[in-house]
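Sample A.
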Amino acid sequence: MSTKSKSNRIYFLAICGTAMASLAAMLKKKGYDIYGSDENLYPPMSTFLEEQQIPVFKGFDPAHLDPAPDLIIVGNVISRGNVEIEEILDRHLPYMSLPEALRDFMIRGNRSIVVTGTHGKTTTTSLVAWIFDYAGKNPGFMIGGIPLNFGRGYQVGGGGDFILEGDEYDSAFFDKAAKFLRYMPDIGIINNIEFDHADIYKSLDDIKLAFRRFVNLIPRNGLLVVCRDNEAAVEVSGKAFCPVVTFGDSPQADWRAEQVVATATGSEFLVVRRGEKLGRTVLPLAGGHNIRNALAAMAVADHAGIKMEVILAALREFKGIKRRLEYVGEACGVELYDDFGHHPTAIKETLAAFRARFPRERIFALYEPRSATTRRNIFQKEFVGVFQDADYILVPPVNRPDKVPAGELFSCAQLAADLVQSGKQAAHLQDTAAMVAYLVEHLQTGDKVITFSNGPFDNIHKKLMDALKSKNS
């Protein structure tokens, strides 16, 4: 592979992550000469980069750095010992993290709107971006998922606003601070704060400290939008220098939803701001958690001067996000859904919304412990109460148990046993093949299957659909 020899050549080390590839595409659109490398090249990101005409080296080699690029953006999967990072350090080549690059190339000069929280970030960020875009504001944005209204998780924009999903995970091997501390927030949202990311945070207090630092970055003329229902979120917002607006179910919240009606495709509710009834809207997303996400987005849009009738109309046209309670397909009368949920609160709320949508159908929940936190036994007891709205629960082994310190491994067998003890139909099965076999034996027409994993779950959706069709052919 060859690359152009010109100024403003930016090299992405570990380019195939979703955020890295998205930023690469945005910078290419802005006129930079972009190329990169990664260890594993596979769809959909390899296809995406090829479509963007961004050349990529397969594997890591110091020779990729000749001639030297003007700047190297280092992904947070890269650690010391990588042959390219060692070459970069030896030669004093200029480098920065992904959050720093977003700040310097995309955020600076714009109003920065940053959505944070342990869960709900992707949906809320997508809602804010869609409302602003629907209102004709042409925002830039960077989102960790794919909003279906856009078909991509990024947009360069040009209207003076840049909207980001603000992750509390660390930035790079050389910058262990939370990503959102690099985003220069003018407007911030805190959906909720719970313990997560056990590989980098020791306690909930550690996480709250990161959020306090985030709050302390918002200028006096900015805005902080906080979930009134979450005690930790309210606590960290107590010393904000900017105005604070709240949302939630609490009677004390500034923004609330009343007269909520669950519909076949989502929710309908009356929007109330400090006692003033602003109008009814239909949100094509199910569950109280998504209504709260929408209220947060509405509060930001209202602050930005978008008319309420435009906000309400935009919500009605929202199409959702890929892998957030996403309908995957149907086989032999069985519907399959997929969700990115992995934290116990997120899974519980999603299942409650799913049950409200399908009150009489049998629900099969498939859960894969895969994240750095859920691989550990931190939430071993909490997970027993998470699946109360499912009829059957299947759990495979923990993904990559070698990543877990000795004595801290989550026990899938114990979870299944505890669920059975609580009266549920549950099983711990050895792999996805065994799960598919179990499902083919037990599923009936009208049943619903939903998977929870922050990874591909060994492509279980396709395997199950193929097996069901084969059985009935």
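Sample B.
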Amino acid sequence: MNIFVQFALLIYFLPLVAFVINIFIGKRLPRQGDWVSILAVGISLVLSIAMFTGMLIDYNPNFKVEAFWEWIHLGAFNIDLGFLIDNITITMLMVVALVSTMSHLFSIKYMEGDPRYSRYYAYLSLFTFSMNGIVLSNNLMLLYMSWELVGLSSYLLIGFWFEKQSAADAGIKAFLTNRVGDIGFFIGIMLLFTAFGSVLYSDIFYGISQGGLSGTMLTLAGIGLFIGAMGKSSQFPLHIWLPDAMEGPTPVSALMHAAT
């Protein structure tokens, strides 16, 4: 297996492992398990820096490594999932890991003494896992699943202090507003899947270049995908959730803007 794929798998799954550990046994661990999440994201940062350095040393503008596996096989209905690693992927992995590591470290003192300290770090790890999924996916299905996990993580972190009504309302507002955008996103994905019978980027790009989808349907698919991005990146008119998102802990705000 290519070394970049190995590193990418570690970067992707380490935050998920930290989430599972902290959500189930974090309270019983020393320091309530914050070190588990910090260690996971720290290793991810080191690996992403190593990948970025390797990319710079032996720079190839056409570098691309793809690894995928069969997820659903039902006769004519097939969906493959996998990772796509290129220069943009490597750069964005480092950005996510760097900002996430800083948020984890800042939270040590900021969240000190909070009764749900271990749960907070579990949610941070889930957020990081979700963002890495968006960056690494080579298909629209894994992208969409990671997209929805980012939405769930945002809801959990914005409304973390849910005993405060304004925080609870802000979490719900962010969740519902993003769902509006995600409906458009899902419609765009379904239009592309209907046209090409695949959710892989490579199949979709090739199909479009060959004229497999054009005119009004291509425009509608593109608008659908863009509506999803509008919701996540808080663009007008789906911008209304972001100011209220400041109800969450401050390190969450930093991480959320990184996700945006």
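B remarks: The radius of gyration is 19 Å. The beta strands are 64-74, 77-86.
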